[in-house]
Amino acid sequence: MNSAQQQAMTLTINGRETVWDGDPSASLADVLREGQGLTGTKIGCRTGECGACTVLMDGRPVVSCLVPAGSAQGERIETIEGLAERADYQALVQAMLEHGGVQCGFCTPGVMVTTYAWMQQPERFDGDLGAALKNNLCRCTGYLGILRAAEQALAAGGGAR
Amino acid sequence: MAWIQPRSVAEAVELLQQRRARVVCGGTDLFVGGPARPLAPEQEDWLDVRRIPELCGARRTEEGLEIGAAVTAAQLWEEETYRALPALQQAAKIVGGWQIQNRASLGGNVANASPAADMVVPLMAYRAKVRLAGASGERRMALQDFIRGPRMTALQEGELIVSLIVPERMLGTAQVFLRHDQRAATDISIVSVALAAAVAGGEIAWASAAVGAAAARAYTLSEEEEQLWRGRLDAKAMARLGALYAARSAPITDVRAGEDYRRSLVDTYIQRAARTVLGQ
């Protein structure tokens, strides 16, 4: 510990272990963006409503603006930068482009992370991506493009681990 | 300031004595309204209870089902163990969205004591008990005594919520949780109702209901008054129940709804819950 506000924390981000020195009650979203330069994770509301900051923790989507950094120790954190290296994720990217699932793009990283997590086990929401995306606000697309893209990526075999 | 992750209740209680730490679980209520709510001046550390195995699961006991305080909303609606508590599962699935549900804990929803808390409402209908651990040992109390008012609980200094205990007789009863909100999305309830009822042959043997977001804290009727739930419940009996619960409400007027509207919703939703468990 360097000062009253600092603590050395070991975080596993996109498969790499990083030691981060800082305030353990800082939000994971800020640590990712400012501490690690992983700016693919967006911050929209800071109150857990918009979902733009969604990342995976042990494979489950969470809003990183509400995750205290200290709490992320010992968890497998995956950001959109980490997912981008996967082939099945790229199938979803392609489908999003084809179906117009992206407009202004600000919500897109969060939407992609939640959708990717949903694709691993769509039966969890009885196949309903709309229900899984309840915590991801998109004010441009009307969601239809996103839903169609996910359907296509899933049909193409995406998500089967 | 340090982030401490104890591995047992005993260790957590000891740390709470030594270090005057602030308990945190999923953290979803920590940042709402600005940066992380700061520690009180006398507090030095954060005590993260998510890594205490006995807080992260449930067990069947003679009393009923004991649910660890750190069990998340997503665990509640996903895991087989909680199938016997459909009203709690429905409430857990409506809290925030998937991302919130993966972090928000049952114990946290109780500790935060928001009048509009969703998961508290079925727990109140179940007549759940809260198990607490502190320096002087363990104690348990009825949830309705534990939650004192908006953001106020009977939790004492150095105490920790260990679990919520749902009585055996509630398991597997006909249940429903209904919530009125404006967006059917990430939103806060305007009024919510949970009902657990023993139903056989279209008749209610006994029932217990709770109402959320319509008073300073979720409320039930007395067990004596709950006798009104018994029987076949024709339209008149349902109307009487709805009116009684509505009369007990003490709603506020805020940006989401007016007082009168909320009171009238209590009536509507009590009756709707009754029809739902009766399959009407």
Arithmetic mean of pLDDT of chain A: 93
Q: Judging by the overall fold, what is the CATH architecture of the largest domain in chain A?
A: Roll
End-to-end Cα distance of chain A: 40 Å
**What global shape of chain A is seen?**
globular
Number of structural units classed as domains of chain A: 2
What structural category do the secondary elements of chain A indicate? alpha+beta
GO molecular function, one term (chain B): oxidoreductase activity
Pfam family, one (chain B): FAD_binding_5
Organism (chain B): Paenibacillus sabuli
Keywords (chain B): FAD, Flavoprotein, Oxidoreductase
Which features does this protein show?
heterodimer; A: 161 residues; alpha+beta; Ubiquitin-like (UB roll); DNA polymerase, domain 1; 2 domains; five-stranded mixed beta sheet; 5 strands; B: five-stranded antiparallel beta sheet; three-stranded parallel beta sheet; 29% helix
Structural description of this entry:
Chain B: This is FAD binding domain-containing protein. The complex is a heterodimer of chains A (161) and B (280). By secondary structure, chain A is of the alpha+beta class. Chain A has helices at 28-35, 80-83, 87-99, 108-120, 129-132, 144-155; strands at residues 7-13, 16-22, 54-57, 60-63, 76-78. Chain A has 2 domains: 3-79, Beta-grasp domain (Ubiquitin-like (UB roll), Roll); 86-155, [2Fe-2S]-binding domain (DNA polymerase, domain 1, Orthogonal Bundle), CATH 1.10.150.120. Chain A contains 6 helices and 5 strands. A 5-stranded mixed β-sheet of chain A has the order 2-1-5-3-4, with helices on both faces. Chain A starts with 6 loop residues before the first strand and ends in a 6-residue tail after the last helix. The mean pLDDT of chain A is 93. In chain B, β6 and β7 (137-142) form a beta hairpin. The longest helix of chain B has 19 residues, at 259-277. The relative contact order of chain B is 0.12. At the A-B interface, β4 of A face α4 of B.
